[in-house]
Specification:
Order of helices and strands of chain A: HHHHEHEHEHEEHEHEHEHEHEHEEH
Strand content of chain A: 5-15%
Oligomer: homodimer
Largest sheet of chain A: 6 strands, parallel
Distance between the termini of chain A: 75 Å
CATH class of the largest domain in chain A: Alpha Beta
CATH superfamily of the largest domain in chain A: Response regulator
Helix content of chain A: 40-55%
Low-confidence stretches of chain A: none
DNA sequence: ATGAAAGCGCTAACAC
DNA sequence: GTGTTAGCGCTTTCAT
């Protein structure tokens, strides 16, 4: 930095408080952290001195000595996505109650940046690291292992987590949605996917779709790729109606294209759910408000954050006995877009 | 903590690297922070030693001595709101580029918790604090002042900020929306507010609405209160149509009720914008997708975070010359819900 | 360009 | 229940 860089002022410290309270700084430290370990009289005098001087503890110093930073690092692609925002909210919910702070990093969906940001955060000696399961670089895994910090991979359930893991199975999602559609009377189900943009989670849903239609309907996969947007969904349905009118249900990789399918169906005079059923993924607010309501899959995002936090607290505390991996599951939310009755089906 | 509390391992430190590189630890420190200040040969040997040992710097230790934590605290009501999520994203965008980390706290809309959380974050000696402008407790202001840490109050423009301030004026918003409606031909404008739930921002919009309709239309304020939900908006419009059919435009305190108004208008056969114009606030995704598109106000949330970060970087660096308060303004986004033409108006 | 000494503010470890 | 001593890992300061 330059010449005029603001020199942070010296704050009141433990010694100041100790002097004022007429005890040693060690006693102040104890009075603050474990009030029951000092005499009532001492405690009171310390409290008064703290208040009088406006003392704010310095966790940096304490953390240096005790090697406990009371800090948890969390690296996500972006906070400007409800998915991760909710996860982070769940994390802080629980962590703050245990006097841990969350230091945030964002990778902007870049593995290189994820690596760089995580390395940067490690300089603050977090007591644990939370990051989305996924295609981190091998380097990152090695770095994390070498540093030896507890890691929670969130969002997806993993076969071989680096350390701890909380999430759900996208394969189970694909199977559950297809099963739901079949139960509601679907006989020919298309999948609207993301094409080249497909990520590991989307792929898992698509593969499970393919397996499940094969198993339940003896049907080959019918995949229409489209941009992951409402307009993408519209375009996809237009092609579906033209290319394969026998299709009577569409499973979209996400709610955004699913809403597009719904809108396009409305304009094309294709009755939902009677003629066509539609299901999405993500429980976007949209799908709740649109008519007919969109059947979708809700993932307990916030709960994932909370469980990750609980795992960390357990691991760092004295009850390191909890599970290291948890499948939080998900919920298929049936709404009107798949509310076909037998009567509809027979029509 | 208890007996089994995980004892964090000792990490490789500067001295280890120094030994390996055959130099003093001071030289390693310099080589890492200002590579140009050591000889080329030294630099190379240090780099090699760092790589070989997998050294991760310890910012806690460095920060203790240098009194620079390279940490910025940010306290917001909740991260599970796109508004604040975007602000935080803007903050981290810029801050990471300057090698600062963001430590997050959430107040859950409680002033008491805001106070508590902020105090907790201060223990980590952030070099600046970012928090929404608003009704913090007086205590908080005093605490922040006493600690002497730079503060940025965000979101709203303030008359008397504690320190720095970036945001926009909700009064200006109210005036701009009403002006827009009048320009499009509105002659009698109602406001859909939040009743008892009204917060300072909502109040500013309502007051500016009242002043502007008085000034431009010589009209008394007509306020319908409703829950801040889509259904709230529906109910409000039902009452409006019944109680005061001369109303030809509705300004809603937020997009959620505005969408409700739009939906209810559709069902009631009330043509938008010909018979009724509708405007909201917040540029919710909903309003972009619904038909007719909802005229609304967009606030540059992310930009607010970025500017706050830039102010901080400037203040902490050697160019502490920038403005201490910035009005980022906002944008009225005209969509079809207010796209009335002269022809419509004359009908 | 490099090194030695000191110390940031706190807590672990060990007295008493 | 309280105090003393040492030292966490780094950077500031001063010397060379």
């Amino acid at each position: 930095m330059g010449p005029a860089a603001a020199k942070p002022a010296r704050h009141t410290n433990l010694t100041d408080v100790a002097r004022r309270a007429g005890v040693s700084s060690m006693t102040v430290s104890r009075a603050l952290r474990r009030p029951e370990s000092v005499s009532e009289d001492t405690r009171r005098r310390v409290e008064r001195a703290v208040a009088a001087l406006g003392y704010v503890p310095n966790n940096i110093a304490g953390g240096l000595r005790s090697r406990r930073s009371r800090t948890i690092a969390c690296v996500i692609p972006t906070i400007a996505s409800p998915v991760f925002a909710n996860v982070v909210q769940g994390l802080t919910d629980v962590l703050y109650g245990h006097d841990y702070r969350v230091v945030l990093g964002t990778s902007n969906y870049s593995e290189a940046e994820e690596q760089r940001v995580t390395a940067g955060l490690l300089a603050h000696r977090p007591e644990a690291v939370v990051l989305p399961a996924g295609d981190h670089r091998r380097e990152l895994g090695r770095l994390l292992k070498r540093v030896g910090v507890p890691v929670v991979e969130i969002w997806e359930r993993l076969e071989n987590p680096v350390d701890m893991n909380v999430g759900f199975s996208n394969r189970d999602v694909g199977a559950a949605v297809v099963t739901h559609l079949v139960e509601r009377g679907a006989r020919r189900i298309a999948f609207v996917g993301m094409g080249a943009d497909e990520h590991a989670r989307a792929r898992a849903r698509r593969e499970a779709y393919a397996e499940t239609v094969a198993r339940l309907l003896d049907q080959k996969p019918i995949v229409f790729d489209a941009p992951f947007t409402i307009d993408g969904g519209r375009a996809a349905l237009a092609r579906i109606l033209r290319d394969d009118p026998a299709i009577d249900a569409v499973f979209c990789v996400g709610d955004l294209p699913a809403v597009g399918v719904l809108l396009e169906a409305h304009e094309a005079g294709c009755a939902v759910p009677q003629r066509l059923m539609v299901a999405g993924f993500g429980d976007h607010e949209f799908g709740r408000q649109i008519r007919p309501g969109l059947t979708t899959v809700r993932v307990p995002e916030r709960r994932i954050g909370q469980i990750a936090a609980e795992m960390i607290v357990g691991r760092l505390g004295d009850h390191d006995t909890g599970p290291r991996a948890i499948d939080v599951g998900f919920e298929v939310i049936p709404r009107d877009s798949t509310a076909r009755t037998q009567a509809d089906d027979s029509g």
